[in-house]
Specification:
The complex is a heterodimer of chains A (250) and B (416). By secondary structure, chain A is α/β, with parallel strands linked by helices. Chain A is built from 7 helices and 11 strands. Classes of the chains: A alpha/beta (250), B alpha+beta (416). The complex binds adenosine-5'-diphosphate and magnesium ion (MG).
Chain lengths: 250, 416
């Protein structure tokens, strides 16, 4: 059974509790058309997707299949050409830019393939900055940042800048940053692509553990097959279309 | 706590220094170009502005300070008697040629005044105005000591007459004119008219005999052979030529009324307030010669080039950090945080570019004045104005660059 089929019969609001399991992320008929000059490119074609609360959901697919595009839409960073997206019961495709921005700040932690840390800031400051924009400042921010960094195993690296950290350590700083403010949703785009397999695996296992502790829903976009083990569910994207939804841990 | 703006600035020190050098260059360009324009127009009138005269009486056809027809010395007496005039003093102005003792020629602008007068008293930095009472003594501007190749106590020649430097003044030299030489009325009369022979031309008119001195170029006009058997220059006679009559009004006089009285008493003249005289001269240089236009153009181009340079630097700087700003935006940071960081960064760049370039320009203007007599005028007002321009340039360019982050481009944020 695929989630997409279920989705077609139900209005989006009612889907929030299917099978007694709440749905954190729902996409309905999402389309994305890129236009460059005269050329039109259908990057996403009618995507329907449900992601359950507390799940570690993988979105896999070959390069160019539209994974980043879909993640951007689900995170409210990119407006789809058509369709609706519902996050935590709120329809974000109806929100204004300002509302969306606020929603992201309060509910979504983002993790990037190239970490996107601030090179001029230390590990501690990078995490503090995220807390600052969430309204947590001063001593409290420092305590929380230190605690998050020690949770990702970097208690002794807090004063190093990104350039003095290994790739795996950088991604762990990024995970700590994404966890600031305990967001209900965590979205990661190819988080292990820039890491060697050992540190990639370590980072993902860490992310899984912390997310499970917090009860966060995690969406990981990847084409790294080694992550499959840590996931609860997997969907495959090919040429802008979802293929199957399956439980990794059946 | 964390100021991304400042941390970003100093993160890459070489890049920061290169950017600051560019901003410094741009600010200096603006400062120097506008300073030259200000200095030039200011220098053409500083002699006028330094007098304590209320009014200047000149021939009706006067064009600017250094271009006028002559009045007669006896008209000073007439002016002095006009009701409301406290003091009337003559000012002689003419050309001249300076011959150093190593045989170099320099054109001169000679001013003759009463060294014991009250209205025309250039500041001395050496010697005193009184010393000019002695025959064949002169005072020059300190900025011209080099080009006139003379030192205090030293001597040279003005045409065929000796000239001994007994005093030095400052802030009198117009960039637009020949080297200025100051001396007493008698000496000036001798220097200016030594190349001419004079004859008296008198006509019998209704009011009486009306005489004019007519000057003709003498045979010795181009001679630089030092004159022998020098006579002491004679006091001015009533028919000798002068350029201006400087007037000090009695306290409480309405200057407009006094102007009319003077013009009535002295047909063929016009009276100007010192400010009008200054403006007339300034306007001549600004509007009737290409100099004002060229310097104005230079200043305008300086401001534009400065803006473009600073704009580019700020734009590049914001672009260099575009991924970081995009990431902040993707995380949901309020626009205020992002704009605040960019504006703070541009303000730092403006301040850190402005201060050293102002120091540099002040040094440069000091040096230019000391060595070349060229005034690059940086007034407190223009310093503040240039700071404002710098801030506007930096913040404006940054705000322009901010457009790049008003929408997050997933392609930038998620790029590998
Ligand atoms: N801004 C854009 N303009 C035009 N085409 C784009 C744009 N972004 C992505 N694409 C195209 O959409 C397709 C999907 O891209 P993307 O979502 O980045 O795929 P993936 O992350 O799976 O590699 C690609 O073919 C890509 O070239
Ligand atoms: Mg991608």
């Amino acid at each position: 059974m695929t989630n997409c089929q279920v989705a077609d019969f139900y209005p989006i609001q009612k889907l929030v509790a299917v099978n007694n399991k709440q749905i954190a992320i729902a996409a309905r008929g999402v389309k994305m058309v890129y236009q460059s000059g005269r050329e039109i490119f259908h990057a996403l074609k009618d995507i329907n997707l449900n992601i359950h609360r507390g799940d570690i959901q993988l979105l896999m697919g070959p390069s160019g299949s539209g994974k980043t595009t879909l993640l951007s839409i689900l995170a409210g960073i990119l407006t789809p050409s058509g369709g609706r997206v519902n996050l935590l019961g709120e329809e974000i495709t109806k929100m204004s830019d300002h509302q969306l921005s606020r929603f992201r700040l309060e509910n979504i932690g983002l993790i990037f393939q190239s970490f996107n840390l601030f090179p001029a800031l230390t590990a501690l400051e990078n995490v503090q900055l995220a807390l600052k924009i969430k309204g947590i400042k001063g001593k409290k921010a420092k305590e929380q940042a230190l605690s998050l960094l020690s949770q990702v195993g970097l208690a002794d690296k807090t004063n190093l800048r990104p350039r003095n950290l290994s790739g795996g350590q950088k991604q762990r700083v990024a995970i700590a940053r994404a966890l600031t403010g305990s967001p209900q949703l965590i979205m990661a785009d190819e988080p292990t692509a820039a890491l060697d397999s050992r540190s990639g695996q370590r980072a993902i296992e860490l992310l899984r553990r912390l997310a499970k502790e917090e009860g966060s829903t995690v969406l990981i976009v990847t084409h790294d097959p080694r992550i499959i083990d840590v996931s609860d569910r997997i969907v495959h994207l090919e040429d802008g279309m979802l293929l199957t939804s399956s439980s990794a841990i059946a | 706590m964390v100021s991304i703006a400042r941390k970003n600035l100093f993160e890459d020190l070489p890049r920061f220094l290169v950017a600051q050098a560019g901003i410094m260059f741009a600010v200096s360009l603006v400062t120097i170009q506008t300073g030259i324009l200000e200095g030039f127009t200011g220098s053409t009138t500083q002699l006028i502005d330094s007098t304590t005269a209320d009014l200047w009486v000149a021939d009706v056809e006067m064009v600017h300070l250094e271009l006028t027809k002559s009045l007669l010395f006896r008209q000073v007496n007439i002016a002095q008697k006009v009701d409301g005039v406290q003091k009337a003093e003559p000012l002689i102005m003419g050309g001249g040629l300076w011959l150093t003792n190593i045989g170099q020629l320099t054109p001169l602008r000679t001013f003759g005044f009463d060294p014991e007068g009250e209205l025309f008293r250039p500041q001395t930095t050496a010697g005193s105005l009184r010393d000019l009472k002695q025959p064949y003594t002169v005072m020059v501007d300190e900025s011209k000591l080099n080009s006139l190749n003379v030192q205090i106590g030293g001597s040279a020649q003005i045409r065929s007459l000796p000239a001994k430097l007994v005093a030095i003044t400052q802030n009198t030299q117009s960039i637009a004119s020949s080297s200025v030489v100051f001396t007493s009325l008698e000496n000036a009369n001798a220097y200016i008219y030594s190349a001419f022979s004079s004859k008296l031309d008198c006509k019998l008119e209704e009011e009486g005999v009306n005489c004019t001195t007519i000057y003709e170029k003498s045979d010795k006009a181009d001679s630089f052979e030092l004159a022998e058997n020098l006579e002491t220059p004679e006091p001015l006679s009533s028919t000798d030529a002068i350029a201006y009559i400087l007037i000090k009004a009695k306290p409480g006089q309405d200057l407009e009324v006094l102007k009319q009285k003077l013009e009535a008493a002295l047909p063929g003249t016009r009276a100007y307030t010192t400010a009008q005289m200054s403006k007339k001269t300034k306007d001549f240089w600004k509007k009737r010669t290409g100099v004002g236009f060229i310097l104005g153009l230079g200043a305008t181009v300086g401001v534009i080039v400065g803006m473009v340079i600073v704009g580019q630097i700020l734009y590049t700087s914001v672009s260099d950090h575009i991924k970081e700003f995009g990431t902040l935006k993707a995380m949901g940071a309020p626009d205020g945080v992002i704009y605040g960081a960019i504006v703070e960064q541009s303000l730092w760049m403006a301040i850190l570019g402005y201060i050293p370039s102002m120091v540099l320009c002040l040094g440069l203007s000091y040096w230019a004045l000391a060595t070349e007599g060229v005034i690059i005028l940086i007034t407190p007002l223009s310093a503040v104005g240039i700071f404002a321009i710098t801030v506007v340039m930096c913040v404006g360019a940054a705000l322009f660059a901010i457009q790049k982050v008003t929408r997050v481009d997933p392609a930038i944020v998620f790029k590998a």
